[in-house]
Amino acid sequence: MNNNQLKTMRDAFIETVYERMPENHSIFFLSADMGAPALDGLRQDFKDRFINVGIAEQNLINIATGLALEGYVVYAYGIAPFITMRCYEQIRQNLSISSQIRPLNVNLIGVGTGLSYDLSGPSHHCLEDISIMRLLPNFMVFSPSDWKLAKDFVDYSIKIKMPKYLRFDSRPLPLIYNKVNDLNLEKGFYELLKGKKVCLVSTGFMTHRALKVAKELQNVGVLDVFLLKPVDENSLFEALKKYEHIITIEEAFINSGGLDSLISKILSDHQSSIKLKRLGINDKHVFEVGDRNYLHKLNNLDEESIIKLAKVCQ
Amino acid sequence: MPNINELKKKALWVRKETLNIHRIIPETRLASSLSDVEIFVALYYGKILRFNPRNPQWEKRDRFIISKPHGAISLYPILADFGFFDKSELKRVGQKGSFLGGIPDTTVPGFETINGALGHGLGVACGIAIALKKKNSESKVFVLAGDGELFEGAVWEAIMFAAEHRLNNLILIIDNNKISMLDYCKNIIDLSPLQEKFRVFKWKVRTVDGHNIKELYKSLKELKEEKGNCPKVLLANTIKGKGVPQLENNALCHIRILKEDEIINAIKKLNEQ
Hints:
The structure holds two protein chains of two kinds. Chain A is α/β, with parallel strands linked by helices. Chain A is 38% helix and 20% strand. In chain A, helix 1 (9-20) packs parallel to helix 7 and helix 8 (206-216) packs across helix 12 (303-313). Chain B has a five-stranded parallel β-sheet, with helices on both faces. The relative contact order of chain B is 0.17.
């Protein structure tokens, strides 16, 4: 694999689901009227196991629940803010609560996390999903940073019978994990670069930003958290404890249950003296118009701002 | 045809047991659990539903989704009577360590889904109906919903979906007791003509007196056996709080808690019937 090969997480994921469907007859794929290039073949070739429920996220979750109760592995696909927030009560009651008694293999695929849909404005931005989905008992929250991780998650998602939220960026992105051979999905994180004093801890799209920042500086670590729930907290602390400063970077609201809260909780549990800085969107919606880089700049998530902050810590 | 007189006796017993449960745990929604007694009796004692108390998850069972579980306290005695769990449990409803709570959930043997929040049952049932078709299963999916529940928008997403996917293995029963929590439904949003609404949404509609066991049995049996290519709804016209004069025709009966002496009197009156 060439790491310049740009690809969306959803296409890589759906292609692999498509490859599994001929031999695995228990897979259903549902969409709330959302498409993808990779979905065209699946829709055509598995008409009996693909359902477009229409623009109806509440019903999407309910139909998925019914199928999963009968033993099917279900993928339910939609736009990230809508597939999490429009139908949060369906997710809570029919997936989170129900799965405590009878585990259901429903995989919610949300595309367009963070500021992926930059120009569509605050209704389409998805800055709450990490917090609100992490909150739900019996749920797994997967937040890959490249399409290889997304692709590798397919077989795992079939095997692990529980509801999951898969948050995918909408943009084609280059590979990060093409040269990684010792990845353990269940650990939930990977230290991509080892540093000395400062470590950037990021998830999803922002891991690409963290790697760029680290390239500009010397000895800055980068740790990618791709399972926001559950994550192996002890191993994660073992990886973090050598640093003096941690900067969390996420395209999400901070101070409200996201990646920053997760790291803060781990540090606190270990009574650590490591200093924590949180980067993300701070308690406001983003109405400003402009591309993603511009919106990042306004919120100190751009390369320059992060470099500046990391230098202060160094 | 089952012995209708026997079924009537069962309905009377279920009503009294429901009152007894309300005495133990006054938070139970009594009025809502009395309008659907005959529906439960026809489904279970009339053997409309296929089920196996020794194996509640039996693959060949009919699925029964109770979308208004707060109003299904009256199903506790029936499930106990069939041996889903021991009858002694009925005396422990709502008590420490009991699995029978104020609103039934899937920890109760015989309950398929979690439905405390309203308006989800029909959509989940649609998913089950699709799955059963995929498995070439003969089993049917029954759903019990309240008429007040039809105010939830997600129900209509499912109504549209079921017709589009020709879910002829799906039978929705509306416990049309005409009252929600705060008022008569028609004073909140008038749903009439409900039959026409379902018809234009491409459903097969039948209407029945929801307290006439014989008619309920006949309608449910015919709906179950009918092939057709559309989902089916039975509008069961019922009286909220049926059998208890303080509750019947009382717009606020949903939240009415009966006092000890009222319960004793109500049971006495039922015994005189």
